[in-house]
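Both lines are retained for reference:
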Amino acid sequence: MDTEGTGRPARLWFDARGDGPPFVLLHPGGADSRALEPLAGELAGSYRVLTPEQRAHGHTPDPGGPLSYAAMAGDTIAFLEREVGAPVHLLGYSDGAVVALAVALRRPDLVRDLVVAAGVHHHGGWAPGVLEDQARVPEFMVDAYAEVSPDGREHYGQVVEKLRRMHATEPAFTDADLAGLDLPVLVLLGDDDEVRLEHAVAMYRALPQADLAVVPHASHGVLVEKPGLCARLITDFHATDKPETLAPLRRRADA
């Protein structure tokens, strides 16, 4: 497992809105914080929502070199230390979920709890054909990148290639890695997700304090397709007064 970033952390551009406990949302790869806009709008009434943009994404420039989850986790840790300075609710979406998981494994002192939304803990968790399809980038994603990136429209092809190389071998967390993460985690995905359902269930089972939410009639775009439902699932997950379930197995006091 590679949890250590390399090189100097990039300074991440971010947006913030709302009042309440800090809730940091990490966007998908190849996109930027606008991909989280529907969910952020639902959450801003209850939290201070912060949406940093990773290196080579959105408003944050590409510092050069390859992309890796470890480097982006290092950038995010530096962001949390600088801009928050206290444990946060943390959510990652798709590639952002892997970054969030890497942050929690490396610095659990900075994370109150974690939502892994439509993400994998091993690169084998993607459905067949998903990684191969990433070479066919929709034009609207290129347009969106060009609207805000300081590196210019033509640089997006380099970002896509860096992501392709990263996805070929990363992430590679093990069940033992997950078993060592002793904080509450919500594993959330659509029932027709690009993440294999079996992989999400394996993640849920390996994590010692996990909840699992499979959103019906939803795809890999689950946070955009059903932001209201996802926000309710997340706020319920954050609740400190959850009732006892009637017939627990995994959560039995003597388990």
User: Anything to note?
Assistant: The longest helix spans residues 69-83. Residues 1-5 have pLDDT under 50 and may be disordered.
